[in-house]
């Protein structure tokens, strides 16, 4: 991937995030001399990225021309979960034009899963959502080498190690593609259109099948040298705890995640200590995190305690991160965010109690606004950025 011109990116992102802007205002906001701005806009029009959008309101003299991202721009956004595929095609403003979701097992392997992704994108084209894709962004539930566009030793994704995801999507759709881990794209989505809108320094914590943290610092995602920054699910919280999918004992996600909560709920039901869970296990023979959430809402003491125990472990890890990074906000998302305010209250309590007062004096800990759509929203942001960068 080539290095993008920062000014060029600012111009295109401004049009993406704010819609039509006059040439005069663009010049003022970008502090770009008019001749250079006009030359740059002409180049972007020729590339099919920008189009004229009529005349702006008068600022006291001759009315300036409005410019906008070309209405024909289309980006594909893909969010792969452990058991789901979510695909959207969006326009230049990142507004959905088409959306598809289906159940899928990530353990089926990359050829099966990516074949379904491609089928869904071809269906979108057949449905009239696009003529040409300008970029594809995809998030996967495991560590990713952002530089190489491949998953690397993902614990819950057998067969995906070093699979050329970016190369395959680029070849299939004839446009640039970009691959990141799921929690980073969720952080990008929340920054663009969620509760963290306009917050430059925040942590996005995904609690679901696994646990990860998107680190957003200085207005950008921090990925680390090799792309694995934020992998907090494999921080050890109990040396004598259960074995994790990574092979180590007592990792955070082995103690509290969707699978861990289902395991503890099943044990409580079989022991007869949680009436709400006993009934559900008898009816369905399998328990999930949703059963625990429903039991807690009914006032089942054991269900509430299971959520609090998990929130306490997450809070301890986050307290260390807060003291280390001093974020402006923590956003909690992922499937287990459905556990709601019982979980949120416990995380808040531990973070506020264990972190330095200076770091928590003005630190909101909140639930994601975008919920399940955070991933595709962020994949769309990533796709647009790579398209803009490739054109610079």
UniProtKB/TrEMBL annotation:
InterPro entries: ATPase_NBD, ROK, ROK_cs, WH-like_DNA-bd_sf, WH_DNA-bd_sf. It comes from the Bacteria. PROSITE patterns: ROK. PANTHER family: GLUCOKINASE, ROK (REPRESSOR, ORF, KINASE) FAMILY. Belongs to the ROK (NagC/XylR) family. This is ROK family protein.
């Amino acid at each position: 991937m080539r290095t993008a011109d920062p000014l060029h990116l600012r111009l295109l992102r401004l049009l993406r995030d704010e819609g039509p802007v006059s040439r005069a205002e663009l010049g003022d906001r970008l502090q770009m001399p008019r001749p250079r701005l006009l030359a740059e806009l002409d180049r972007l029009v020729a590339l099919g990225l920008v189009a004229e959008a009529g005349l702006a309101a008068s600022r006291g003299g001759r009315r300036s021309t409005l410019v906008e991202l070309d209405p024909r721009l289309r980006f594909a956004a893909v969010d792969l979960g452990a058991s789901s595929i979510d695909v959207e095609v969006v326009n230049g403003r990142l507004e959905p034009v088409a959306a598809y979701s289906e159940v899928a097992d990530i353990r089926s392997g990359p050829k099966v899963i990516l074949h379904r992704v491609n089928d869904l994108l071809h269906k979108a084209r057949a449905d009239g959502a696009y003529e040409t894709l300008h970029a594809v962004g995809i998030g996967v539930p495991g560590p990713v080498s952002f530089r190489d566009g491949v998953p690397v030793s993902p614990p819950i994704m057998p067969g995906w190690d070093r699979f050329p995801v970016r190369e395959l999507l680029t070849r299939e759709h004839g446009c640039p593609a970009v691959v990141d881990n799921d929690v980073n794209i969720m952080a990008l989505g929340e920054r663009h259109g969620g509760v963290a809108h306009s917050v430059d320094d925040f942590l996005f914590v995904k609690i679901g099948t696994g646990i990860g943290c998107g680190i957003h610092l200085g207005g950008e995602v921090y990925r680390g040298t090799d792309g694995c920054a934020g992998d907090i699910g494999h921080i050890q919280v109990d040396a004598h705890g259960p074995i994790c999918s990574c092979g180590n004992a007592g990792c955070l996600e082995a103690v509290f995640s969707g699978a861990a909560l289902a395991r503890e709920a099943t044990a409580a039901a079989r022991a007869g200590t949680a009436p709400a869970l006993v009934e559900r296990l008898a009816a369905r023979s399998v328990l999930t995190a949703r059963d625990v959430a429903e039991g807690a809402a009914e006032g089942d003491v054991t269900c509430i305690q299971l959520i609090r125990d998990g929130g306490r472990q997450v809070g301890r890890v986050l307290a260390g991160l807060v003291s280390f990074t001093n974020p402006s906000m923590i956003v909690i998302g992922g499937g287990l965010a459905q556990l709601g305010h019982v979980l949120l209250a416990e995380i808040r309590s531990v973070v506020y109690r264990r972190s330095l007062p200076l770091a928590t004096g003005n630190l909101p800990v909140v639930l994601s606004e975008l919920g399940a759509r955070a991933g595709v929203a962020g994949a769309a942001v990533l796709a647009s950025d790579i398209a803009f960068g490739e054109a610079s």
